[in-house]
Amino acid sequence: MQVLQSTDFSYLDPTRGFDGGVNAFYRLIYRQLITKAPNDAKDPNAMVPDLAQSLGKVSADGLTWTYKLKAGIKFDTGATITSKDVKFGISRGWDPEIGIGSPYLKKLIDAPKGYQGPYRSGDLPTIETPDDRTIVFHLKAPFPEFDAALSQSSGTPFPVGTGGGDSFIKDVISSGPYDLEQLVPGSVIQLKRNPHWDPKSDTVRKAYPDAWRFTVGVEGATIDERLIAGQGADVNAISGSVQTATVARLRTPQLKARTATAPSTCLTYMGLNTTKKPLDDVKVRQAVNYAVDKGSVLNATGGRQFATISHSILPKTVSGHIDHDPYPSAGNAGDVAKAKRLLTEAGYPDGFTMTLDVRAKEVDQSRGEAIQQALKRAGIEVKLNVIDAATYYETIGTPSQQHDAAITGWCPDWASSASTFLPPLFDGRHITAKGNQNVAQLDDDAVNAEIDRIGAMTDLAAANKAWGELDKKIMALAPFVPLNVENRIYLPGTNVAGVIVPSGDVDYGIIGLKDPAKG
């Protein structure tokens, strides 16, 4: 199986990596207690047992969750995976240098104050392992979606004592169907079968191909041309979503027949750093929201065929979404007069200068230029700071390296749930020196308290409604500018089967080749 991509993965280490592309890759080499159902399941958003025998058994007070591991599951070394290995892998998430990926488990598990992971602080007493196949988690507060939190890549087990420092930067210890055979950073990742993976223990991954080859550093336009041409090994290839310029070419019957479109749940937005002057003033942030021409940003993204304009934090596909437009303008072109009025009230009648971080990708730079031109109308001069795509999220997730604003995105981490949208983006108590998800660095007491209140609700329907109301309150604070929600359009090679995308990412675990002899 061939995968063509322009950008390298952030990290092989699942405690460090967290972006969508690498999460899809992790499914080939790592397993967790619980995982998302395969894309071809009746309910592809459901949480299902993976290393565990069943979903968690929760105590009456909602604070204790217990799991039993399946028998005979092994690492690629041949060693049996025990509850202690699961505990060790999860506890790595508290390390300030390593635990920069998914934040949920370290937010939910009741770790001692000041705990910094197994390498610095030793044992984590709030995860118990009474025997080799039983593991018990003690939470800070009830969280009815804890099964889903365990499905995150930070829930990956590792043998006790491994993975210190940078040892997982260039190597892995696999618990999934494949193992690392070759790594040339920025160029090639080759996977081979893990002989100790037992398909009988894994109801999620089919693992059809004998090997995977990820070719990195190929220009997006070149990838599209290769997939359209479909020559040689490219008949067995797949990539991420096609480039915006390619979409119109997919209307021919031959190409349309193998196109897969996923309505995305992911929001693209411009985060505004609330700790930087003058963006620490809510009126200035509101002025920026009014000044942005979302129509021109949509065109830069690829137009209506490719994306839909957003006015709120939660996309329509996410539970809890409420239709509201707190900063309206005619034709979504921006209200420059209101922006100027707010800037004058804030003491900036002549505007100000700000630096906007963008990825070194054509579409992101085009969006940045559209914002640059729109804000100039209100007297705001925008300087673009272009950052390498492979290190972009780590850079903007390091507050000491962050500028005034950044174009980025966010996807729900499970089941299109608002609980995975608002807390990681706006809980000010979890702003970290590295791996920070709260790019706006918003730390508002009322928002933090509401996140706690809603997070503890056991009635998920009522909770979703409350998340929608919180969306409106946060947007009044204007910590960022919602831009759009993009569809994802895939063009797999002619010999590729199993590309089913109910939403979001391709599920590598169910992909195979129609004819293994081809290519």
Automatic annotation (TrEMBL):
InterPro entries: Peptide/Ni-bd (IPR030678), SBP_5 (IPR039424), SBP_5_dom (IPR000914). Residues 47-429 form the Solute-binding protein family domain. SUPFAM superfamilies: Periplasmic binding protein-like II. It comes from the Bacteria. It holds the Pfam family SBP_bac_5. PANTHER family: ABC TRANSPORTER SUBSTRATE-BINDING PROTEIN, PERIPLASMIC BINDING COMPONENT OF ABC TRANSPORTER. This is ABC transporter substrate-binding protein. It comes from Streptomyces hebeiensis.
